[in-house]
Design goal:
By secondary structure, the chain is of the alpha+beta class. Helix content is 16%, strand content 39%. It has 3 domains: 89 residues, SH3 Domains (SH3 type barrels, Roll), CATH 2.30.30.40; 61 residues, SH3 Domains (SH3 type barrels, Roll); 135 residues, endopeptidase fold (from Nostoc punctiforme), CATH 3.90.1720. It has a 6-stranded antiparallel beta sheet, with helices on one face. A 6-stranded antiparallel beta sheet has the order 18-23-19-20-21-22. The chain is globular, with a radius of gyration of 21 Å.
């Protein structure tokens, strides 16, 4: 359900958690509620129009000042829209841990108590950025993670995301490249750069991270490379599944380490991290292939 952005921030101000300042405002996903909405360079109706949004378009809200909301567009540019024509559809944005054994702390300090240790690929709901820390929710807890240990795709342009990994890093570079695309939408038949189906996702990642061309078909991909035992999987290996339980390969993803893999999920409608060793994907797992050594 869409909630009015103004009402949301009014509650924060009443609680002493917000103000007209742009500092430490919560991240939210907003949806346009107007036929056409001007995006302006500054928070003023006389400011230059830099873009236009249309009804039902979704945008990242990064702060607010009075009746205006600062947004980040999909191309990475920032601008301002009137709060009268937007509503919140999601509080917080998707992020993930980019290293192993990362401390999740009770407060935004390295001296604060550790509430959990997170593995690479763990998914977070990022609420806001305060200094060098993100305030997040994880497993029902609200806590803090040092920002360099969390990737938040919506806070980066596509160029920044793909630049994180350069070619020549081998299989680990492939898995890191894949993790940078978490949250991208699933669209059947899509091969990037911002929407994918399962084999379109693996094809895009391998081409971008390793310069390796793969066919846009999970069955065809499953016939390439060298077969790897499940116990010998390494980050960057391709993993294959028979999700319709027919016995034939119909789904693929990229192993990320620690029993997790990254894939474009039609069920979830986006690129996610899933467990390879338990549940549905353990039951429907077929085999793995190593394409890059």
């Amino acid at each position: 359900m869409i909630k009015k952005v103004g009402a949301f921030f009014a509650i924060l101000i009443a609680l002493g958690l917000g103000s007209s300042s742009v500092f430490a405002q919560p991240f939210s996903i907003g949806k346009v509620q107007a036929t056409s909405l001007n995006v302006r360079k500054e928070a003023s109706t006389t400011s230059t129009i830099i873009s236009k949004l249309y009804n039902e378009n979704e945008v990242l809200i990064i702060s607010n000042v009075q009746d205006w909301y600062k947004i980040r567009l999909t191309d990475g540019n920032e601008g301002w829209i009137s709060s009268a024509y937007a509503g919140i559809v999601k509080e917080g944005i998707d992020g993930y841990v980019n290293a192993d054994s990362v401390n999740l702390r009770q407060e935004a300090s390295t001296q604060s108590s550790v509430v959990a240790k997170l593995s690479k690929g763990a998914q977070l709901n990022v609420i806001e950025k305060t200094g060098d820390w993100y305030r997040v929710t994880y497993d029902g807890k609200t806590a803090y993670i040092y920002s360099i240990y969390a990737n938040v795709p919506m806070l980066s342009t596509q160029t920044q995301q793909t630049a994180v990994v350069s070619r020549g890093e081998g299989r680990s570079g492939i898995s890191n490249y894949a993790l940078n695309l978490l949250g991208s939408k699933y669209v059947w038949g899509a091969m990037g750069p911002s929407t994918f189906d399962c084999s379109g996702f693996t094809r895009y990642v391998y081409k971008g991270a390793a310069g390796t061309e793969l066919p846009h078909n999970s069955t065809a991909q499953s016939k390439l490379g060298t077969t790897v035992e499940k116990s010998s999987l390494a980050a960057g290996d391709l993993v294959f599944f028979t999700t319709d339980r027919s016995g034939n390969v119909n789904h693929t993803g990229i192993y990320a380490g620690n029993g997790k893999f990254v894939h474009a999920s039609s069920a979830q409608g986006k690129v996610i991290v899933s467990d390879l060793n338990s549940g549905f994907y353990s039951e429907t797992y077929k085999w793995a292939k190593r394409i890059v050594n």
